[in-house]
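Ticket closed. Logging final result for Metal cation efflux system protein CzcD.
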Amino acid sequence: MSHSHDHHAGATGRHRWRLAVAFGLVAAFFVVELVAAWASGSLALLSDAGHMAADVTTLGAALVATRIATRKDTTGRRTFGSYRAEVFASGLAVLLMIAVGVYIAVESIGRIGQAPELASGVMLVVGVIGLVVNVVCLVLLRAGASESLNVKGAYLEVIADSLGSIGVIAAALLVGWTGNAWWDTVIALAIAAFVVVRAVMLGREVLGVLGQHAPQGKEPAELTRALLAVEGVAEVHDLHVWRLTSGMDVATAHIVTGATAVPGEVLVAASATLRERFSIAHATLQIEAPGASGCQGTDW
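Final structure:
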């Protein structure tokens, strides 16, 4: 049995400061937007404030998760560390986004047929400020979104907020031009639909990690073919590949060597193949002699 180790703090740890700055900006603006929403009577503004509340919670959970993920294990039982905390934080983001989307939809439907007085000027100013805040956060988080599922969750939240701010600006202009509060309700419903769609997309990724599915770009059949191409390898079985957390993929496999192969050389070459071609962070490979009867393969 042999191991190829690549211990690191995870992709999110490198971008923790970006999450911290984004959290501060979003939290401060959330307070401003919530007060303005109640003052203006705008459902679009209130819905965007609700989404911002989800952002504040999500970013806060992401920051806590990154701290937990890099914490040393003192129990000796967490053999894979606490890296999955980041994935659970992303799952929380999904639940919050869906809850906010449903709430917005219910409130919007309940307002149909009503004609509330809206302060479109306040809506416009707050919408513009919100867009500026969101653009700054997008620039901060974009660098880490492609590396970390946790940062990606926060990034998608901010994208949704940016569109929400644009929606608030549009609602303010349309209400101001037409005097019809119906536009505020329509745009609020559009924001709700977008939030739920983005949540479902992120949720599928989270479930893929928790379900230990093979990561995208690392198909088991392709890994098997690559290992079979290594000199000295006669057979590959019991191969498993999954994602521990963002930037940390794991694989295990049993490799049967040829009659004249040197096991140590095969192990080094096979480990290098997984590391260099597939960026496998942690590979556990069991080398077996041809015709060996000691291998007890799993039946699942």
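Confidence is low (pLDDT under 50) at residues 1-9. No further action required.
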